[in-house]
Design goal:
By secondary structure, this protein is α/β, with parallel strands linked by helices. Helix content is about 45%, strand content about 15%. It has 2 domains: about 130 residues, Aspartate Aminotransferase, domain 1, CATH 3.90.1150; about 240 residues, Aspartate Aminotransferase, domain 2. It is globular.
């Protein structure tokens, strides 16, 4: 191969290495759980999005096996050709029923990933007559969907309802769409959804909410951010993922039936993608039953207890924990290399916590992204807190000497 072809790529990779931004994959040898084996080492993991601890739940594992026996391994085609199974149809019905208290005339549509769902939503609902009002800290999938939409895009500062109102009031677009995460994946805080919905109803705009990190976790019944804030409106569009708290894979959109039919007819990521395996949909039926039942409530209660304990017991002097009432607990370290060093030291002590760096977070705010799961024990949490206290004290002492 020509050196001229390789050199630009090698230079970019070298620059990532110098800046402390090169990412590394690690191979897990055990099911997703707090105690895992990674690259031959036993680690206590605080890094997955398996918030309810359902990824290896025996009932869901059994449902997946049953689904494979009933429907086979693959779907064989896109949903609009021959890949739409009765398992997909039943899951969509159950998801629509699940969100029924918060949406008017709801219907649900499943996707292979949350990234794909957001690309589908914004590319299908957007266009030259549409203006998107996007939260500054939106997930990459929403950013890329906005770029593909051919819409005018206005960005409002994080959580700034007043700035958003100024933009909405000035807009002359035929269709207006406010786009936001519910739980921000790197900060763990919540969008002010009641105030956003009030603006959308005042200025005749849709409110599209990516509830990837809220579905299954927030709300008494695990219905996510809409239940948490007691929202109900025909102007709400909901995207939830099924590979985080739900423990399996995929995503879904729930909204007014006209929105969903528009996606079926116009969303290229839906139309031109092979449907996900029906066995996954069958497994998700079991997951949804757990989320909405007594066990789901118990798991959410334990998770809330862990979050409260972490908030009360972690006392940092040099590093900074961002305030969060969700399972996402960021600890700001500062520079890229410092965050990498802290993560590496914790790794040597048996903890798996990722160092998150730009462009995922702003420069100078590299952090540990601690995520809690209902499968963690109080003892697991205390081990982490003790390790963080000891390491920060050592880092502070070394910096002062």
């Amino acid at each position: 191969m020509s050196t001229a072809l390789l050199q630009p790529l090698q230079h970019r990779l070298a620059a990532l290495e110098v800046d402390g931004l090169r990412r590394q994959r690690r191979s897990t040898e055990t099911p997703c759980a707090p105690h895992v084996r990674v690259d031959g080492r036993a680690l206590l993991a605080f890094c997955s999005n398996d918030y309810l601890g359902l990824a290896s739940h025996p009932q869901i594992v059994a449902a997946l096996q049953e689904g494979a026996a009933l429907y086979g391994v693959g779907s064989g085609a896109s949903h609009l050709i021959s890949g739409h199974s009765v398992a997909h149809a039943l899951l969509e019905e159950r998801l629509a029923d699940f969100l029924l208290p918060h949406l008017v005339a709801p219907r649900a549509l499943t996707f292979s990933t949350g990234y794909m769902a957001n690309l589908a939503l914004l590319s299908a609902l957007g266009g030259v007559q549409t203006e998107l009002f996007c939260e500054a800290l939106n997930h990459a999938s929403l950013i890329d969907g906005a770029r593909l939409s051919r819409s005018r895009v206005s960005i409002y500062p994080h959580g700034d309802v007043a700035a958003l109102e100024v933009l909405l009031k000035a807009s002359t677009a035929a269709t207006r769409l406010v786009v936001t995460d519910s739980v921000f994946s790197m900060d763990g805080d919540l969008a002010p959804l009641p105030a956003l919905l009030a603006l959308c109803e005042r200025y005749e705009a849709w409110l599209l909410v990516d509830d990837a990190h809220g579905f299954g976790v927030l709300g008494e019944g695990g219905r996510g951010a809409f239940e948490h804030f007691a929202l109900r409106s025909s102007q709400l569009i909901y995207m939830g993922t099924l590979g985080k708290a739900a423990g399996v894979a995929g995503a879904f959109v729930a909204a007014h039936e006209a929105v969903i039919e528009t996606l079926v007819q116009r969303a290229r990521p839906y139309i031109y993608t092979t449907a996900s395996p029906p066995a996954l949909a069958h497994a998700l039926l079991a997951s949804l039953a757990i989320i909405g039942g007594a066990e789901g409530r118990q798991r959410r209660a334990h998770l809330s207890h862990l979050i409260a304990k972490f908030d009360a017991k972690l006392m940092l002097q040099q590093w900074r924990r961002l305030p969060s009432l969700t399972p996402i607990q960021p600890i700001i370290i500062g520079s890229n290399q410092a965050a990498l060093d802290v993560a590496a030291t914790l790794g040597a002590q048996g903890f798996w916590i990722p160092a998150i760096r730009p462009p995922t977070v702003p420069a100078g705010s590299a952090r540990l992204r601690v995520t809690l799961s209902a499968s963690h024990t109080i003892e697991d949490l205390h081990c982490l807190i003790d390790a963080l206290h000891a390491l920060e004290a050592r880092e502070t002492s070394e910096a002062e000497s």
